[in-house]
Amino acid sequence: MALDPYYRDRLQLFDGFSDAQRAAAGGALEASFQERLAAYGDDGPWQPPVDVVITDEVVDGPHGEIPIRRYVPEGADPAAAHLARPALLWAHGGGFAAGTLDWPEAHVVSAELAARAGAEVVSVDYRLADGVTRYPVPLDDVLAVWEWLVDERSVVPGSRTAIGGASAGAALALAASLRSDRRADAVLLAYPFLHAVVPPLPQDVLPEMDVLPDFMRFPRESIEWMVENYVGRLDDLPELALPGVVPVTADRPPLSVLLSEFDDLRPSGEAFIAASEAAGASVRSRLEPGVLHGHLNRHPVAPGVAPSLDWLAEGLRAMEERAG
């Protein structure tokens, strides 16, 4: 399938703004580039679903307080610690180095999943890798909030709690589920970045990928930068830093893996799906057609976003069906 025209037509905004051209301009193009980047990502207004109550809170962690944002469907008391409804801890992406609770990939996704699945969603503002803060600090933050959430809900018999995330956040979510002694009832991963060495893309998508600006691609150099910035080195990596290398076992929690069609990191997710299926783990997967990596970092009106949200919501609702 081709890249959706909604995205393809906007790529002309970046004509003349390659990385090399911007570097040669010595910063003179940067303001214009940022304006064009904002125009590319402008999907129009979005309002949180009216039936979702949103609160900002903090959770204590090993490195200090961790900001979180809680999304509770209306009709449930947000002050009640234990709700008899599915719950999800969600971690945004950003290459371990970027992202906030206000990104669409955090805020919009969390609010929409709360409404679509009737679930409590907690979005975690983990510490970012910046050359000083490194692995395992972001993972420690996600793990601390995960265990806090599970413990908060544990007094309700049959309560079901999932963990998930997007891109680098998917790596953190998967790693936290593997490191914790609190078993997740499901793991939801969106276009996950799980391997330090990512296999090449299928040949059939390369012509469409070639039209993308270089800053939208993930060549080997970019992947290595993300890994080194996060871990501090490129060799002898801890398994849980990029947890796609951890051997999959059949007793893993049920997995839902969402992929973007035009994404250099897509083979990382595909390799994880294949390993999970080969091990006999419960895994469902979806390839969202016509979209780029990070397609959930937009509003639901953008092509591919609403179907992806509905599919992830199905993964949350399935926890309740299994419990029943």
Please name the defining characteristics of this protein.
324 residues; alpha/beta; Rossmann fold; eight-stranded mixed sheet
Can you summarize this structure?
This protein is α/β, with parallel strands linked by helices.
Proportion of helical residues: 25-40%
Give the class from helix and strand content and strand pairing: alpha/beta
Beta percentage is 15-25%
**Poorly predicted regions:** none
The helix count comes to: 10
Main sheet record: 8 strands, mixed
Number of strands: 8
| Second CATH tier, the architecture | 3-Layer(aba) Sandwich
How many structural units, i.e. domains?
A: 1
Structure description:
This protein has 324 residues and is an alpha/beta fold. It has a single domain (5-9, 45-323), classed as Rossmann fold. It contains 10 helices and 8 strands. The chain has helices at residues 5-8, 19-24, 30-40, 107-117, 137-153, 168-179, 206-209, 220-231, 266-279, 305-323, and strands spanning 52-61, 64-73, 87-91, 120-124, 161-166, 186-190, 255-262, 283-292. It has an 8-stranded mixed beta sheet with strand order 1-2-4-3-5-6-7-8, sandwiched between helices. The model has no long low-confidence stretch (mean pLDDT 95).
Describe the SSE topology.
Blueprint: H1 5-8, H2 19-24, H3 30-40, E1 52-61, E2 64-73, E3 87-91, H4 107-117, E4 120-124, H5 137-153, E5 161-166, H6 168-179, E6 186-190, H7 206-209, H8 220-231, E7 255-262, H9 266-279, E8 283-292, H10 305-323
Parallel strand pairs: 3-4, 3-5, 5-6, 6-7, 7-8
Antiparallel strand pairs: 1-2, 2-4
